Structure to design on (958 residues):
């Protein structure tokens, strides 16, 4: 195979001329002035513009409007608004709900991660899929499903005769209900973070503990938990951010249950006063932002205390559950039965009856709700089509932007890269409703050149989606970049390829699976989105996400349930379909894949 | 032409000075190796030459054109330099042909000419039959040849190699070293080869730059590094060198000097301008020490602490000198037996007086 010394002598003699006969061209090329310098500069400029216009500027406008009104900076007004009884009550509720729900999520997610990663539990992949499913279902649908769980149409409780007697206050319309549902809903976030930590835990650490005589219990408590501490707290921080900004559950349970929180207060103020109350809404949104960032920073700080860095090694062996196998697996699946099947079956049950409150049987069963939702209800159809094209446009724009942004964040240093990194992290942390308020403020006034404001049109929803989901689109792509050898890009650079050619020819094909995953994640989240669009929808521009709340508020529970069921089905199809990408994806990119 | 000239280049990351005032002058068509321990800055030096890093100060000229300097930075894509990466950086989604053709495609070479040139280059590195395979289907040696073919196709006049053998099995290395030598002979390109393995550097390069903590300690021909190290660090680094204190150095003329080492008079090599000194450092290698008859009147007395079988020879670790406190290594031809605790007598046949004022780079 390899050329012998003799061979290379021959090559030396005969081929030198052939190989170098177009030398002048290459030399000229080397001497060419610094062409192409514009490419990367232009890309950076475009990214800064994109992030600046869609994230930084609206948020700056929000902060400005919160603190400065037409009368200038007025401290009395700020104290007045923030010190009001209702705002105080909502603030205390918000903090209490977010903290309690985070505790539930953290315990739940940690236990689930330990079970899935350290034991030989059977049918693990299916269980993980079921555990991640609620996170992918829009929160308003989850809330609706739980509300239906106690209705006569609920197949599980209805058959047992445990349905709620008419007229009785629904037990979930309460502070406890909100906390429970938020805790369950965000458990998977902690699960993901803890599982990532567990996967980095070297086997030798656990084996050394066993060699020192520690049993499974002692090894878990004394070795594993301290080592995955940072993962637990990172997950808790995510759960906190998600709980405090979760509009769907807080609104669906809190408004009928008269448990005001900051997020529902903002929503109701907009509904009651319209845009005249924008300064106060901005102030409340700013308060929410401060609470969010404060809580997240505190949790992250707690996680760093005594953090132990461990190096990757082979994975620990799984603990055989042995005689405990049956009870533990039983409890694990019972969890799915209660917290997944119960509400979802109730949702389907309600969607199958003519009127709310009827039990499902051969006389009451009907597919009218589904056919209405799919074909006849004009509002739903329009809202769905709007959601669809806005979502597709968002995906089409965000994916290339995220690929380019990921390139800069992963492989470039300097102050512009730092700025982009900070901006994209901030956008990830802030609740969608804050982006919503910011977008109203930013686009309320007539735009230059166009002459009209964008508020109330579908364009402002599109802008909000781009701003809101950039960070989400970025995450799997950054994961893809982390696995990509930088040399591949540098080799292409040496071959003379400019930045755009490299992104197209080298980076994009190598990242293809991560890009697919990113597109699926953004699509799934945006198509059912509620947090941002609930503030931005108008009679002219509806999206499908808030439709459930409007239908429920209007008393069409069965139709709302049907729409919810269709969303769940769509999510299920997308999740299962994405599993077909299978082994081509970097680990951890699809959260529901074990 | 393709000479490389670096002028006092410096580069820091935060507080860490990675490159300190590096000046090198590499002739067109020369094969230069940069040798140093990991973390000495050699990879940063390569990345500066390729244009991936900007300089803090100094300038780099390649082929007479300033490519990096104050307020000037030619991007890597416009430098026309070939790099063979440590892991070869072959694009996994492209076939061997596509990998080799990519640079030509970017520079706008027409399809027909491109095809012919790629086929020709693949024949040169004997990869014709593998032309349509993916890099993942190739062996380590074949991957390296694809990486070389990529440089060949681009007709790079300067090729930088970043520890290209570090990830390979020992038995493959010898064969691949030959490939580099053949590539160099075939193309006449200026080669800049980064390695931490001195046998690679000494075997391949016309000249070797020894680097440590961001500085070039010595830039010289391999045999000069081995026989005439200019600093203690170089002396200790190359070929298991040993540095000892010597006394009473007296030049004898013609590049020789007499001295007292471990209490014994010896004749050493030295610089022509070596002056007489009471103390100096000398360097030698294990092969310069020989065992002599116990009855010999002179000789360094030593006490064997450990003898290790090395196949062709026996490596003896001894404690030597008047007080028996200087550890030395000595190689003894194979059929020999030594036991721990045995008394032996040694003679130093050759050595080099390390110049006290050492020019760091005498080839500028």
């Amino acid at each position: 195979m390899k050329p012998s010394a003799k061979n290379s002598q021959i090559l030396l003699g005969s081929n030198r001329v052939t190989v170098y006969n177009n030398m002048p061209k290459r030399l000229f090329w080397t001497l060419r002035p610094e062409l192409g310098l514009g490419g990367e500069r232009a890309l950076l400029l475009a990214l800064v513009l994109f992030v600046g216009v869609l994230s930084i500027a609206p948020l700056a406008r929000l902060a400005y409007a919160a603190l400065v009104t037409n009368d200038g900076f007025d401290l009395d007004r700020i104290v007045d608004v923030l010190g009001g009884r209702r705002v105080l009550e909502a603030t205390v509720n918000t903090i209490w709900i977010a903290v309690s729900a985070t505790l539930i999520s953290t315990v739940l997610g940690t236990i689930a991660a330990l079970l899935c990663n350290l034991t030989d539990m059977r049918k693990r992949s299916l269980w993980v899929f079921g555990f991640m499913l609620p996170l992918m279902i829009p929160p308003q649908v989850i809330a609706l499903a739980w509300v239906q769980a106690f209705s006569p149409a609920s197949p599980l409780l209805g058959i047992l005769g445990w349905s709620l007697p008419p007229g009785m206050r629904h037990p979930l319309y309460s502070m406890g209900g909100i906390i429970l549902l938020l805790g369950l809903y965000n458990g998977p976030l902690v699960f993901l973070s803890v599982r990532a930590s567990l996967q980095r835990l070297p086997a030798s650490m656990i084996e050394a503990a066993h060699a020192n005589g520690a049993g499974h219990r002692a090894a878990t408590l004394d070795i594993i938990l301290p080592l995955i501490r940072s993962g637990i707290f990172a997950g808790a921080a995510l759960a906190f951010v998600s709980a405090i900004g979760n509009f769907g559950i807080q609104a669906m349970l809190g408004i009928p249950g008269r448990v005001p929180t900051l997020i529902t207060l903002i929503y109701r103020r907009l509904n009651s006063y319209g845009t005249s109350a924008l300064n106060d809404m901005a102030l409340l949104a700013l308060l929410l932002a401060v609470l969010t960032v404060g809580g997240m920073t505190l949790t992250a700080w707690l996680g760093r205390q005594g953090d132990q860095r461990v190096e990757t090694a082979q994975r620990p062996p799984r603990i055989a559950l042995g005689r405990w196998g049956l009870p533990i697996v039983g409890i694990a699946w019972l969890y799915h039965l209660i917290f997944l099947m119960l509400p979802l079956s109730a949702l389907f049950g309600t969607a199958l009856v003519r009127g709310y409150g009827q039990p499902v049987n051969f006389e009451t069963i009907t597919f009218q709700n589904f056919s209405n939702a799919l074909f006849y209800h004009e509002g739903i159809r329009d809202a769905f089509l709007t959601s669809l094209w806005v979502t597709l446009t968002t995906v089409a724009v965000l994916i290339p932007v995220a690929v380019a942004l990921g390139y800069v964040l992963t492989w470039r240093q300097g102050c512009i890269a730092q700025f982009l990194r900070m901006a994209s992290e901030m956008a990830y942390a802030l609740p969608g409703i804050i982006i919503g308020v910011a977008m109203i403020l930013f686009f309320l006034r007539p735009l230059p050149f166009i002459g009209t404001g964008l508020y109330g049109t579908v364009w402002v929803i599109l802008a909000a989606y781009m701003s809101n989901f950039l960070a989400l689109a970025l995450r799997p792509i950054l994961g893809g970049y982390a696995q990509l050898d930088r040399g591949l890009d540098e080799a292409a650079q040496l071959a003379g390829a400019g930045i755009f050619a490299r992104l197209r020819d080298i980076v994009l094909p190598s990242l293809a699976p991560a890009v697919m995953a990113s597109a699926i994640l953004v699509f799934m989240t945006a198509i059912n989105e509620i947090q941002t669009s609930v503030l931005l929808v108008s009679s002219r521009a509806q999206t499908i996400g808030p439709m459930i709340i409007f239908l429920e508020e209007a008393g069409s529970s069965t139709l709302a349930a049907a729409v919810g069921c269709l969303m769940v089905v769509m999510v299920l199809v997308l999740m299962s379909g994405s599993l077909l990408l299978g082994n081509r994806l970097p680990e951890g990119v699809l959260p529901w894949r074990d | 032409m393709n000479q490389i000239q670096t002028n006092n280049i410096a580069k820091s990351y935060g507080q860490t000075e990675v490159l300190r005032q590096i000046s090198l002058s590499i002739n067109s068509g020369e094969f230069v190796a940069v040798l140093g321990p990991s973390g000495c800055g050699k990879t940063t030096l390569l990345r500066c030459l390729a244009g991936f890093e900007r300089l803090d100060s100094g300038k780099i000229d390649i082929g007479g054109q300033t490519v990096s300097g104050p307020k000037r930075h030619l991007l890597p894509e416009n430098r026309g330099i070939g790099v063979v990466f440590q892991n070869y950086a072959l694009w996994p989604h492209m076939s061997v042909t596509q990998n080799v053709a990519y640079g030509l495609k970017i520079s706008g070479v027409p399809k027909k000419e491109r095809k012919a040139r790629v086929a020709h280059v693949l024949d040169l590195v004997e990869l014709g039959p593998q032309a349509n395979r993916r890099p993942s289907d190739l062996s380590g040696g074949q991957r390296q040849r694809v990486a070389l073919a990529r440089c060949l196709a681009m007709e790079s006049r300067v090729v930088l190699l970043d520890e290209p053998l570090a990830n390979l099995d020992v038995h493959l290395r010898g064969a691949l070293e030959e490939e580099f030598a053949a590539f160099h002979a075939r193309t006449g390109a200026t080669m800049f080869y980064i390695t931490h393995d001195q046998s690679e550097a000494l075997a391949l390069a016309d000249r070797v730059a020894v680097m440590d903590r961001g500085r070039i300690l010595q830039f010289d021909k391999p045999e000069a590094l081995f026989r005439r190290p200019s600093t203690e660090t170089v002396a200790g680094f190359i070929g298991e060198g040993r540095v000892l204190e010597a006394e009473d150095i007296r030049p004898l003329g013609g590049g020789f000097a007499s001295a007292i080492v471990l209490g014994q008079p010896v004749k050493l090599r030295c610089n022509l301008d070596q002056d007489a000194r009471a103390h100096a450092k000398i360097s030698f290698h294990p092969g310069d020490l020989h065992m002599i008859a116990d009855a010999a009147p002179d000789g360094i007395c030593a006490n064997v602490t450990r003898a290790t079988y090395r196949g062709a020879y026996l490596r003896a670790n001894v404690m030597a000198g008047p007080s028996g406190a200087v550890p030395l290594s000595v190689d003894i031809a194979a059929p020999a037996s030594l036991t721990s605790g045995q008394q032996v007598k040694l003679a130093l046949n050759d050595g080099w007086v390390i110049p006290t004022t050492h020019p760091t780079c005498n080839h500028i």
Summary: Residues 91-255+296-365 of chain A form a domain with the MetI-like fold fold (CATH 1.10.3720.10). Chain A touches chain B at residues 1-3, 5, 7-9, 11-12, 15-16, 18-20, 22-23, 26-27, 29-32, 34-37, 485, 487-488, 490-498, 501, 505-506, 509-510 (CB under 8 Å). The first strand of chain A starts at residue 68 and ends at 69. Strands of chain A lie at 68-69, 72-73.
